Amino acid sequence: MKATTITQAQKKLPEIVESVNFDSTPIILVNENDDTKNAVLVSEEDWNSLQETIYLYSIPGLVESILEADKEPLSECTPYDPNEEW
What we know:
three-stranded mixed sheet; alpha+beta; YefM-like fold; 4 helices
């Protein structure tokens, strides 16, 4: 993960935002006044993806169900039917 100071980031914010969006590489914003309290800049798309992943992991049994389904051979799967009643 790349890092830059907050002062440097202020001078180059448009370029940094473009880089984060293009590369999907987060940037650590280092607080020059307190090394223990930094921040991370991520793209909105990556942020939304992280939030969705956290939400999906919060559903009990979902991850296990997906991993179990992944073991099932495609030949045994039922084709998708948009008219199927649930």
